[in-house]
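**User:**
Everyone, produce one record:

**Assistant:**
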Amino acid sequence: MRAGLLLTVAALAGCGTAPPAPPAQPTAGVSVPSMSATTSAAVTAPRPSRQVSGGWEITVYYTAVERFHSGEPTRVTGCPKLDCAHGDDDLGTYPADFVQAVTDEGTGRTTAGQYLNWSYDVGFWLDSAPRDTDGDRLTPFVSAAADPSVLPHGTRFRIAACGTQDDGSAPPATICATLRDAAWLITDEFTPGLGGSHHIDAYIGPETGPGFTDSPWYLTLTGAGITVD
C-alpha cells in the first residue's frame, strides 16, 4: 500500500488507462475521460442524507501484476504462507520493480498465479489471494485502510465528495463517480507512524497494464468528504 501498508478484474494490455470496475457494478466506470475533464456538480456534491466529514486525503492502492514489470531479478525471502513473521524461506525471484511495487502497495500477483504479499508486521509471504495482515482477503472497491483510532476496523463509509488531486485539478468525473458509488469497509490499517489521522487508502484491484502509475486511476484525493454508515 502506497501509504506504507502493508485493483479483481482481468488484466488489460496497454498503459493501464482503462479503469478497474467495482465487482458489484461490472459495467460502471469503464471509460475514463482525459485528465482535463471537469467534474460535474452531481459528482462532487456531497450526499445529502448523512453528515459529511471533510478534509480527508484518499489514496488508491492496488495489486501489482508481475507480467507488467521488468528489472533485475531479485530474490525474495519470507513466509511460504501466512503462519510466521519475517521468515527466511526462499519465495522466488522477481523483477526488482515488481518487488518494490509489492512493498509499496502490499500485494502482487506473480506469473505463477500466486500472490506475493507484504506488510510491516509480517514481511513477505505467499498466498492464494491478496490479503491484509489479518489474513482478510482484499476486495476491490470495498477494502480500505485508515488510522484505527479514527476509523476502527469494520467501519463502513462512502466517499461523498472527491475534492481535488495533488495538483489542484478536479479528478476525472468517471473515476470520481466510480469511487463514490462504492461502499467501502475499513479492513486494514496503516503501518505505525504513517498515513495520518485523516488519511484513507482505498483498494481498487490489480493494475491493468504497464505504466499503471501514470494512468488517471493512480491518484490521491485531497480535501475529500466521507459519510460514515
Confidence is low (pLDDT under 50) at residues 3-17, 23-44.
